[in-house]
Every structure is written in C-alpha cells, then in structure tokens.
Amino acid sequence: MTLNLLDTIGNWNSQLFRELKGRLKMGHIAIASVLSLSGQLVLFLSWSSQIPVPPAATNYQYPTHHRFCTGFDGNAKGDSIKCIKDAAGNFIIHWPSWWLEIFVYLSIFSAIVLFAAGTYMLVSDLDKEERRGTLNFIRLSPQSATTIFLGKILGVPILLYLAAILAVPLHLYSGLAAQIPLHHILGFDIAMVASCALFYSGAMLFGLTTSWLGGFQPWLASVAVLGFLTTAFNAPSIGNAGDLLTFLSPAAVLKQVVYQVNQSSHSNISWLTGEIDRVEWFHLQIGKNFVSSTALSLLICVVATYWMWQGWQRRFPNPTATVLSKRQSYLLVISYQSIILGFALQSNKYSLDEIVCLSIPNLMIFLALIAALTPERQALYDWARYRRQIVPTGSQKLWRKYPILDLIWSEKSPALIAIAINLLSSTVILIPWLLVNPYAFPATIAFINLILIYAGIAQLFMFAKIRNQAVWATCTVGGAILLPPIILSVLSFYPAKAPFMWLSLVFPIFGSSLDGSIYTILPAILGQWTVLVLLNLQLIRQLRIAGESASKALLKA
Questions:
Q1: What is the spatial distance between Cα 206 and Cα 312, in angstroms, rounded to a whole number?
Q2: Angle of the 290-315 helix axis to the 145-155 helix axis, nearest 10
Q3: Are 152 and 129 a contacting pair, CB within 8 Å?
Q4: Which of 103, 188, 334, 407 has minimal Cβ neighbours within 10 Å of its Cβ?
Q5: In the prediction, which pLDDT does 434 show?
Q6: b/e string for 251-290 if b means 16 or more Cβ within 10 A?
Q7: Is the pLDDT of residue 348 over 90?
Q8: For residue 162, is pLDDT > 90?
Q9: Which residues contact 5 (CB under 8 A, 6 or more apart)?
C-alpha cells in the first residue's frame, strides 16, 4: 500500500516524491513525533502546575485570588478572581479559562515553529541545491516551475507537517473545552494554512533570488519571520495602516477567536486581543465580526501568495530574468495600495504614527520592487546595444515610434521609469488618505524622491563592471537609508535643529522633520531632485556608451 501511494505521488509530482523519499526515514519520523508530543506534554504540565491548590498550612491567609478560580471580586495584583471552595475544601476552577490559555499558547507556539522552522528548511534546501549544482539539473527536467514549487513546499517541511498533525487532537479538544465554537477553530486552522502558504512561498522566492548571501540565507529568513510573528501576535490594534501587519499572519484570526469567546477577564491573555474590535477596513467594522476578519486575512494572504508564485514562475526557469515584469509590477502596486488604503482610512487625524505606519510598509514594498525590476548588467547591455537592431513586430513597432514605451514595458530596460509610474499610481490611490492628512504631502514628495534615488543607485551598481553587483547595490542602498539618521544623531543634528538635512537625507518617518516651513521643505526637495538628475545623467551616459558598436568605439579611440 505504501509503495502504491508513493507511485501515485511520483506520477503526480516527481519532485514531491524525491523530497518525501529523502526525508521520511523512520528515525526522522520518530524524532519529529517525540518532539511534538513532548512539547505538548510540557505545555500541559506547565499549565497544570498553575492551577491553584488550597495549602495545608493553618496560618495561610485567606482569601486567595487567581485567574483560574471561579469567584466574584478582585484585588489590585492582577489576579482578579477571588477563589471560593467547594464542600470538599478545594478551589472551584473555571476550566474554560484554563483550556483557553492552553489553546492560545499551543496555537502561537505551533505558528512560530511551522513558519520560522519551515522557512529555514526551505531556504536551506534551496541553498544546498544551488551549491551542489542540482538546482540547474532540476531546471533541465521536463517538470514545470509550478510542479517543482509545489513539490518543494509540500515535501521539504513534511516532518513539520507531521508534528503539526500530532498536535491537532490537543488543539481541538482544548478549543472545544474552552467553549470556542468549532467553526471558529476551523477558521483559525484555515488561516494557518493560508499563512503557511504565504510564508513558504516568500521563503522559496527569497532563497531563489538571494543566493549571493550564501549560508547566511536561512538564518536571516527565519529570524525575520520570527520577529514578524512576535510583533504580529503582540501588537495591539493601532487604528491605522499598521494593522495590516496582523492580517498577514494568523494572529488576526486568533485575536478574533479570543475576542469572541469574551473570557479575557478570566484569563491571562487579555494582551492578545489588543482592541481587535477597533479595526476597520474602508470604514467596515471587520474587527467585531469573526467571519469578516477571517475573510480579509485570507484575501490578503491569497493575494500576497499569488505574487510570490508569479515571481517564482518567472525567476526559476531563467535565473537572470527579473523577478517581475514591469506590467506585473503595476498590478502588484495597485492591489497592495488598495489593501493598505483600507486600513489607513481608519484614522481621520494627522499624527506621526500615521506617517510611520504608512511609510515603513511602503518602503519595504518599493525596496522589493527595486530588487525585482532592476535588470542585471548583461540584460541592460543587450538592451542598450541591440534594441535598435531588432526588427520591430507587433507592439515593438509602437515602441520604436515612441521610445518611452520601451522604458515602460520592456523587461530589459532600466527600471527607474517603472518605479516612478508605480510611485505615481500609489500616490493617486492614497489620495483619500492624503486629503485627510494634508500635512503629509511634503513627506510624500520626499518619499517619492528618495525611492527614485535608491532605484538610481541600485541601477548604477547593477550596471557597473564590478563583481557581486547585487551585494554592492544592497549595501549602498541600505547605507543610504540607515547611516544618515545615525550620523546626524551622533553629531547632535536632531530634526528640530536641522530639519533641512533630515528631510533631504532621512526617510520621512520623523515628526519634527515634517514640520518645517516652506523655506525648509522646498530647498530639501530641490536638493533631492538635483541628486536624482545627476544619477540619471550618469546612467544615460553609461547606456549611451554601452549602445555604441565595438567598431565605432575602436575608431573613436
């Protein structure tokens, strides 16, 4: 029967068969099973030890207050429930509160292990395949990129899936014992699966595009996922674009489960809900409805997973291609900004938090777009040299007549025009938020200028005749983002003291740098435009040189 099952899997997905055959060893299965069961046992025993027991000492001061007791009044220590005894002299325990905490912490620990460890395993596996040269062998196989993608995601973390399946009985029983409706438990499980697909898809794309990081890849990816999850589960609802962070993980659904049970006064997990009922999306009060919150979380995860999948399908067959085409990037930005606008519209007042919580996610997405759209040196060289020699067909005739269209649509052309179009479309979509926060216009202009400067720096380094262009581009852009605020702070040039320098050099997430007058804002923006023009002139000069024929360059010399 096992052989027939493996044959069926092999006929459906040979990559999955390869992964399962290498990992489903009896020793590995036993270790994963023991670790899962022992972890559940430790969790159960740890919470069992917290159940209050009446002491035998006669000098014990009564009454006792504890969060697991059944009682009425409270005290100032935080253990708000007064313990009362039954006829046998034992404390009456509020068991739903006790089981609720087991359910919540089991869910959080499971998410951390599944996402962080699974990300590490996937990225590490791709790194090993790359170093051994077997990844190129897989590329030459007749399997499609989608088949390989599914085979890796389903096969590499198979032992983690086994450990998670062994935790399902305790997960279900603790949820039902905590008086959580079954459809709420299943909704959280579906959100876990959707988030797992998102994180694993991101891990696959990250491992494929950052091979230059070497063995540092899996550690960086797993630490980033761990930090993200920790923030998502602990962050309260803040009523602005920062709420998107919670909905990119199963944290939003878990918060809704706890909120709907409405037992936070009996347990020690009131920190988890974080005023989830305040969350709105396009002024729809989704935070008060479990179905709406779950549906929005699933929608966001599905959209993000789709774009990760598109990047893998483009990059895996051709490692030198850009992760996304320019056409895809326009659609990606429209979908992303439409989602984040719904969260940003929750607040109707201007504040520093609004700028920070909207600028940081946009910084991340546009840095990712710069990395995804910037072509490598050879592709840019070929575009500059041979684009005029290609016989135009179809849409290329229109591109030949209007060269700007080549910069907008061609995959091998420089990415600056595409980045500028994406920034413009983002600004247009966010106009409803800007109308509510008119003081954010200078920050928005500075944001656009700095992103274009980062894109110009990255393109120049990727076109330079140096080794490890990606490393140099990443370090330079990272330094341009992080070093200016550090240096200015060390020199005691704080935003209130030097607003011109902060608005010109530093990403606009600091409140004081946004309060300058027109005499500060205008020179800062003009300075950014000057730097941007110089970067573009240098890029144009290099493209012109690259576009000259070899004989012309020789005769000119």
A1: 9
A2: 120
A3: no
A4: 334
A5: 81
A6: bbbbbbbbbbbebbebbbbeebbbebbebbbeeeebbbeb
A7: no
A8: yes
A9: none
Closest of 116, 139, 135 to residue 125, by C-alpha: 135
Give yes or no for a contact between 171 and 103, defined as CB atoms under 8 angstroms apart: yes
Give the CA distances from residue 282 to residues 296, 402, 489, in Å, rounded to whole numbers and listed in that order: 12, 39, 38
C-alpha 496/C-alpha 513 separation (Å) is 7
Residues 171, 40: Cα–Cα separation, whole Å:
10
Rounded to whole angstroms, the Cα distance separating 416 from 325 reads 13
**Which residue do the tokens 């360059």 mark?**
553
Separation CA 434–CA 515 (nearest Å):
16
In contact, 293 and 188? CB cutoff 8 Å? no
What is the SS3 assignment for 215?
coil
Q: What is the residue-wise DSSP string for 72-131?
A: S---TTS--PBP-B-TTS-B-B-HHHHHHHHHHHHHHHHHHIIIIIHHHHHHHHHHHHHH
Give the pLDDT confidence of 292-302 residue by residue, as tens digits: 999 999 999 99
Cβ atoms of 336 and 422 within 8 Å: the answer is no
Give residue 320's Cα distance to chain centre.
24
